[in-house]
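Researcher: Next entry in the queue.
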Amino acid sequence: MSENQKLNFNFEVQEPKQKNNIVVFFLKSNDYINDDLLTFPYAMKNNLAEVKEVSKIGSVKNLILNNKSKKKLLVLGSEIIIGNKLKQDRVVDETVVVSGNSTAMLKVSCCEKNRWSPSVSEDISLSETLLFSKARTNNAEDIYNSQKNNQFRVWEDIDEKFEENEVRSITNSIEEIYRKRKKNVEEIVKYFQPEDDDIGVVLGIGSRLVSIDVFSSNIHLKEYLPRLIRSVALDSFKKTGYKTFLKKKDVYKFLRTIEHSDKRIYNINKEYLGNYIRFNDDLVTGTLLSLDKKMIHFYASLKELSTPPDFKSKVA
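Model: Structure for this entry, 316 residues:
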């Protein structure tokens, strides 16, 4: 995939796979890209990255990120940073790449609105899921329109998700919704396994496409795929599971819709590496992050404009 406004795609769409009402199209590429980026989950798990509040007072919209590795660090938009050492859980606004051995200000939004104080515990970690797919879509649209997330819409989306799932949380932590659904979600996650030449995935619910994520390497896809599937699964429990009518042609139609959307090129914040192409219209929204003329992460989602019809054949 090139970084120009035409967005040339160089992958092949595979046949759909379905588990319950989650549908996955893997995207296969014959191009081998050997990049030196660490993923945020790997870095946090291996003490190669550190996150903390900007000060004792703190800032809802910012956290300090320290990349302790020599390698560049990939932080995906919609990753959820949790832990009682923080004043509240946060969600990353947009995908960024941070230089090796450097410190950067990470732009975030609150996803736990009824807490603003650290507890006794000193833990900070990443959630096993990304922010659910509807909120990811809304965040991408807000950033396209104003270059920042709408905090009130984030809270509204989370409140709506609590109502849908009949979950209660004293602090309104989005993590509580995932914990309630974890057993069901993990059965779906284990079913979908990428092959070694897959670099991306298109996800759907029933007979409606939801999103596409493409990475610079197979390693990054394998790291993030479980989190991507969890984020879509959290939006799927109120929808009855029927055998999908989605075909490869629907994915190609999705890609053509992205091609025809309005696009804007942005130079990235000096604390980060790379450049953005952001796109948005009535049907789709998303972002391409590139570095040294190579695609690092491509994300797009279809907006929920209508409810797909029910179909006759249910799936187990």
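Model: Helices lie at 40-45, 133-146, 151-165, 175-191, 218-233, 248-259.
Researcher: Noted, moving on.
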